[in-house]
Amino acid sequence: MKAVVFDANVAKYIRTLLLGKISKKFFYNRFSCIALKDIPEPDLPSENYVKIKTTYAGICGSDLNLIFLHDSPSTSPFASFPFVIGHENLGVIVEKGKAVSEFEIGDRVIVDPVLDCDARELPRCSSCQEEEFSTCLNITEGKLSPGTIMGACSTTGGSWGEYFVAHKSQVIKVPDTVKDQEAILVDPLASALHPVMRNFPRDSEKVLVYGAGIIGLLVIWSLRKLGSSADITAIAKYDFQADLAIEFGANRVVKPKEGYLDELAKIAGAKVFQPMIGDKVLLGGFDKVFDCVGSRKTIRDGMWLTKQRGSYILVGLASVVESLDLTPIWFKELNVKGAYCYSTENINEYRMSTYQLALSLIQQHGIPYEKLITHYFKLEDYQKAIEVASSKGSEKSIKVVFKFL
């Protein structure tokens, strides 16, 4: 089968980093850590697994971080090389183990990519016992090679390949009423819902969503679809992102330009001060800040834009951040929270997987896929797809997907 494979060793990693300083294309050309290859189809690890033929696969921001080597090397023990990239998925079951009775050959399905204790066929760890699957403690053990999610594990394959395998506990059948283009957006919607559900604002609160890529836009969209009347300010770099942020329910949009901290301070009712050295700081701010970027600037400004004892939620995939001043954490007594992947959410008195919640919201409201999916590519054109996905301003890209049919 054809698949885009990530294979890194120390020499290749350093070489790619150095060449990448010349041109970003060195991160995804023939000298890089990724390549389109012909590899064997993955085998079923046990009779509790199914094999899925991919029909759609999305390019996630985390995939781009991987390709451009922005991820911290500290996470390398929690992956197994080489692996097929991709966790945003939609496909059809083509093979199933003898212990799988819940699904049939031909079922159209999505797969929650988290490789927890259930997927590894181990007794549940303390996190998995609490249904907090994204913080599973056994991500290097059991039936599978190391990997936090599908798309970082050599055993399962990934959605940037023609076939991948999944444990029956991960699989969700897609209702006939949900279109393919809607189903492939379940993963980014779940990534937005997880921080939203864990930090749902009161209607009286002021919320800042920093970043208007796919996750930031879906944070806004999900807040409104879940009934929030909170005052939402979005920070969007590009006009096309700003337009969608307003359409999805933001009260206003601010551009991250010179003097934007003063503009945001007025919105939040905060006071701005100029230190003797360095950038401006704030007293007061927003009740909740969802940082959907995770860069040095957004983390620094995002924490200062959070009010005293407010919540700063890091949704974007931050890695090694040099020279970051952590003063606002203690000075403002911030609640600093991370949001990794998806898990299980509280819905009134019920518990539901974030993936299932995302699918249910799409069933109930639909999702404007025609505005969110901006580009489609064949897998063979993966280099062009990466180019487009990483050039949001010039290409006006939001979600870029591979179409296998």
From TrEMBL:
Short name of one Pfam family: ADH_zinc_N
Signal peptide segment: none
Residue ranges of the Alcohol dehydrogenase-like N-terminal domain? 47-176
Keywords from the named record? Oxidoreductase
Keyword Oxidoreductase among UniProt keywords:
yes
The Alcohol dehydrogenase-like C-terminal domain is annotated at 215-349
**In the UniProt record, does the keyword Oxidoreductase occur?**
yes
Taxonomic superkingdom: Bacteria
Q: Can you name this protein?
A: Alcohol dehydrogenase catalytic domain-containing protein
Source organism (scientific name): Anaerocellum danielii
